[in-house]
Fold this protein.
Amino acid sequence: MKVRTNADTPEDARQAREFGAEGIGLCRTEHMFFEPDRIAAIREMIVSKTVEQREAALAKLLPMQRGDFEGIYEAMEGLPVTIRLLDPPLHEFLPHDGYDIANLAAEMHMEVTELKGIISGLHEFNPMMGHRGCRLDVTYPEIGAMQTRAIIEAAVNVQKAHPEWDIVPEIMIPLVGEVKELAYVKSIVTETADAIIAESGVDLKYLVGTMIEIPRAALTADEIAKEAEFFSFGTNDLTQMTFGFSRDDAGKFLDAYYDKKIYENDPFARLDVVGVGQLVKMAADLGRSTRPDIKLGICGEHGGDPSSIEFCQQVGLNYVSCSPFRVPIARLAAAQSALRNR
Ligand code: PEP
Ligand code: MG
């Protein structure tokens, strides 16, 4: 089993390499947007009223993302890198204090009251089950197009600079629950990528895959696999959606469950093999039934937990991915479990 790791920036990628990672299983692109010099452009993108405004803001983000991806590809020297399209609910990026709101309004040539109206319109009662993941690309395809452009242009540039490396971008579409939404977002990705590759003169291959993190995706994984060249199990979301409690709130009541011996472990730390694990196994089997060579991995926090890694080995996942500091323990656990299951 080939251990990867989760890394969101070129710095994370370098650190992961030092700890022995053999690729990146999850690069969360949104983490690049929180930098002070970038947040302004993403805010402009979110509050845009027209496609033209949104594209103008995305054009500012493009060189920043491309630069980060170049740094990541350089650090990984041709090892696999899975880059996830934007995932969180957009309002996470919005300003809340008056000073920032006034600045953004001035930048966007808007009245403060109008901007406040847009911000409150973005409010969601349950954002983790709201307008996020691939739903963002269904409503605003230009976001996925810009991110794909940044990924593919970076890969082309680094491939040209290092012909000895074999760079194969893996573009991951998050929060899919229905094969048709995956097919739609994938069409944005492939149209953009194919045009850039044709123009570049570089014979670049790339993969498009998805996360399995919604129970419906696991249940229909045979259909999903017809459109996905790889699955990465997002067991953080899959756990919260399967148990029906939020990873951000469960801490408040889980201690009572441990005291009363209802649960023995935190299911967000150790994979619940009895429930969530069955969805993982079922989806892996269903995925292989329609695409026998599908690449399978895990990128939730469980990817760094030894007992969860043992389970991943048993269901035949190809890699586990975790945060850089957990890579050494994950490598050891993967090696031990490979020996035990030989
Ligand atoms: C997951 O859901 O397991 C995952 C890796 O995504 P995130 O934690 O970023 O939602
Ligand atoms: Mg997730």
